[in-house]
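Two proteins follow. First one:
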Amino acid sequence: MNKSFPIGIFDSGIGGLSVLSKIQSQLPGESLIYVADSLNAPYGTKDNLIILRRAIVIVDFLIKHHQIKLLVIACNTATAAAIKELRSIYSIPIVGMEPAIKPANEASVLKKVGILATEGTLKSSKFSALLDTYSGDTQFYTQPCVGLVELIEQGHLESKEIITLVHKNLMPLYEKNVDVIVLGCTHFIFIKNIVEDFFDKKVTVIETGSAVAIQVQRKLNEFSLENNGPNIQRIIYSNSPNENMDKIIHSILAANKFEYVFYSNWNEEQ
């Protein structure tokens, strides 16, 4: 496989852009192709088979049109629902995501950890097994954040509606006196400041984007695929009907240079 081939990254929407940004910082010499399946967001309310089908369509697109050398599933729900099957289908290295339970367990002094995630992630057997591994002295309190992904997809990241919904989801965790919050969905990195402000900066908020970027670098080294070539591609595809999605994406990525491409939808015929 050619080292110059790009890394493919996908998520149900814009949440994985936080992971994309971390990978770009960690690996500035790599071409990155990102797919935001926003038309089908959120994945957290969908059946595993539906998520797997969406993942296969997207990965096939990335391989056919960009010959990706490595895949990043920048979505906790899609990782839990589909990574095992995707690894059996495709021969390229695949890096997934999971809520940062281990670092949260280590960071918690009071041994009380709150987890914000989608219903799909919290109900998955992969998440249950992960929780069982670290459920010793630590108490984990899970909070499914229904409707939050949809609001974040609209790009109004500090709107009154989002703040109200985040506060509603944080109150049960506040009452449990947690000292660590795990952001168990890539979309939730965009409400990190709201979480910190709610707790008056007295909790540790943990996300997994940096850890994923490091794991991507490890996999590239393992398969001798790391690239430092001059011809770098950086493209973001989205099927979002939101006409402001281009502006939303560029506001999130700030100075990072990416070409934005609207792609009406991925389906089995394309």
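Second one, unrelated to the first:
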Amino acid sequence: MTKDANFALGLIKVKENDHFAAIELFSLVLKDDPKEANALSQRAVCYLNVLDHKKSMADINAAIHLDPEYGYYYQCRAYIKANMKDHEGSIKDYEKAVELDPQDSIAYNNLALAQEQIGWAKQAKANFNKSDKIAGIKTAEERSEARIAEQAVDASEEISEKIPQNSNKNSKGVIAKSVFTKKSNFKEFIGFIKNGFKLKKDDKS
């Protein structure tokens, strides 16, 4: 078979969890082309899965040497290091991966998981949020703010009905602008609602 055919079949064997067969196929690819970095990285993961850590690390280091600007290879090495209980080494490689590809949400997620593993909760949270932002997923804080904003819209409509017709025509606009442009005013706004849509004495002009 051709080099490409052996590589493709190797990937199939990986999906079937037949790692020994995959190793043989990737080895055939590398026999034809010793500088095939993709085959080295795939074989590295296969060696990890059959618990040959030494060969796994040798292959992934060789892949990085051939293509030091490809973030995925650093992710592979980080994964291998994590399985070898080298968590700080794993974190360094994930950091290199996101440095090379700042838009890789998976790399940020894996970096966060590695940081979480050794108790770096604050750093992990920040990187989980970066991962979610890149992937277009709202963070917990953003979801909370969105719910508050929706509640404010509903409440502002109720305010419109409560404000007397002969009141200052700008009242509604002032209240709405204050609520929607300053987070600090949400608390006062909620108090305003609880007070029956009446301003406190010291708030009246």
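SUMMARY FIELD: The mean pLDDT is 81. The two ends are 86 Å apart (CA to CA).
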